[in-house]
Amino acid sequence: xxxxxxxxxxxxxxxxxxxxxxxxxxxxxxxxxxxxxxxxxxxxxxxxxxxxxxxxxxxxxxxxxxxxxxxxxxxxxxxxxxxxxxxxxxxxxxxxxxxxxxxxxxxxxxxxxxxxxxxxxxxxxxxxxxxxxxxxxxxxxxxxxxxxxxxxxxxxxxxxxxxxxxxxxxxxxxxxxxxxxxxxxxxxxxxxxxxxxxxxxxxxxxxxxxxxxxxxxxxxxxxxxxxxxxxxxxxxxxxxxxxxxxxxxxxxxxxxxxxxxxxxxxxxxxxxxxxxxxxxxxxxxxxxxxxxxxxxxxxxxxxxxxxxxxxxxxxxxxxxxxxxxxxxxxxxx
Length: 333
Description:
alpha+beta; single chain; five-stranded mixed beta sheet
């Protein structure tokens, strides 16, 4: 039998490929795909990383969890009681017991209809809560959290409260320090309103501007009275220069502040070498001065100069000069 021609070989290859593709299309789907319809919605949520394994706690509202509010938001004047509800959903197959408490400034104002709640399996329970604004509360914004704890893990639900009355937006930037390639500073909310700060950074050296970052929002909310320490990276800081760094912060409502700090950058190796050169120069100057002093001590003294040791007191010579004539005069008489 003669070997197949090249054209026939190509035809056999194409036919084999088409047959393999047809077999793959007719093969049954994997078991995992077949069981997808029976997957528990809670398991799907766990795979997406949405909350704890078997339960969630969120502000009540909306027909589904995805429509729930991201945090509890309440408005009122000092001395008023504000109402809301917390939804606890148990997607597990066993009853769930959680303890509820408030945390933070606004969290301390919250009371629950029940501090301990037991939710049956695959059930959602809504727990009423009341937030009482203290009569002496300062107008502005207050924040806190509702904490739900089942003993193994906890969920924190943010709480935001707007207290009626005149508000004051005040922000300061403090304790600015420069350390190598890092700028450290602190932000303090000195007012009674929630602030979203913005920061601008500028650094000037001996020969011009080294850093100029325009104003940008910072990823934080600063509650009244809160202090936050932050850092600003400066990877291309100079190796040799004297710099002044200025920070400017602003926030909605007219809050604004500036602060600065100075630093001197010196290379380590040249500084050490320069110090050694200075010490060497001082040593040479000192040895030269010592040699000159020794040379002066060996020079002959000028004529007529006498040391203090060669001088005799005059009180010892005067009696001897006068005693001779007195003795001699006595003998002649």
